[in-house]
Amino acid sequence: MLECKFWWQLLLVLVFSNAIIGADVYAQDRSEAELINFAFSNYLGTGFYSSGGGEVFILKIPMYSTLKPMTDSEPGWVVNYPVTLGTANIEEIIGGEFPNLDDVGTVSLVPGIEYLYPVSPDWQLIPFFDLGIARDVINDNSIGILGAGVKSFVNFDFGERWLTLGNRFLYAVQESFDEGTHSNFAVFETGLDYNIPTSFTLGGSVVSVSFYYINYYYLEDLVLVDFLDARIFLENKNEVGVTVSLPKYLGLTEHFLLPDNPRIGLGVQFVGDARLYRLVFGVPFF
């Protein structure tokens, strides 16, 4: 039986809409934004990227279905089908008109499959494989995307508190169907997430706060977007952030529209003169 979690789509779209209501979003001269490796935005997550005179907003809708749940002794399977939208050259996020589909620079759909293997009750290894397509609307270009790698999650219990150590190795390739060009990148990521329950309750659930840190180590720097006066790179960086748990089902019974681990938060990535302000839903990494 498939277990579908479509709540991500609804929540992310609502947050995106509320964040940019009244925004003045426009693309200057479309030729100024060369979306060189924008197809890789599927692996970056929702947030604002900024470097010098260039800004990009990425909205990732991480939908998935559970083919077979993982247990402490039996492996499981999950199918992902995330949709990612990207907008380049955001000049202001204050005043103006509500953006429409004409402002979207890229759209991608990158389905994939994950094999969840329980090494122990507190350690899971997850090999994955993705294959999808992106459309660069600005340059009228279709792009094929392939990604593969492995994730690892280890949990350490400290009474009511717990620490999660996460690692991911990712190798991704993109190729233009129209121009024949291609590029690739590889990254190794390490994340720590420390969860602390509080004395507050909301909707019958104990509110917990987590503080997290992520290191991104790219084997080679990669230009994500190239403006006339600025570039946005994928390069070695660090991220810190905080998440807060949401009421689990608000007293309702389990529903397919609601997450297993409802959390919301904010993260900030630091890399040179660039900053990424990322909205976090669920666990903060991978």
Can you offer a commentary on this structure?
- This protein has 286 residues and is mainly beta.
- The protein has one domain (3-281): Porin (Beta Barrel), CATH 2.40.160.
- Helices cover 5% and strands 57% of the residues.
- It is built from one helix and 18 strands.
- The strands form two sheets. Strands 2-3-6-7-9-10-11-12-13-16-17-18 form a twelve-stranded antiparallel barrel.
- The longest helix is centred in the N-terminal third of the chain and has 14 residues, at 7-20.
User: Biggest sheet: strands, sense, closure?
Assistant: 12 strands, antiparallel, barrel
Radius of gyration: 19 Å
Look at the helices and sheets and give the structural class: mainly beta
Number of helices: 1
> For the terminal residues, how far apart are their CA atoms?
25 Å
Q: What is the CATH topology?
A: Porin
Give the count of structural domains.
1
Task: Work out the helicity level.
Answer: under 10%
User: CATH superfamily, please?
Assistant: monomeric porin ompg
Beta strand count = 18
- Strand % is over 45%
Q: Would you tell me the overall average pLDDT? A: 77
Q: Could you say which overall geometry the principal axes of the C-alpha atoms support? A: globular
Q: Main sheet: which strands, in order across?
A: 2-3-6-7-9-10-11-12-13-16-17-18
Element string (H = helix, E = strand): EHEEEEEEEEEEEEEEEEE
Q: What is the second-level CATH architecture?
A: Beta Barrel
Q: Under the CATH scheme, which class?
A: Mainly Beta
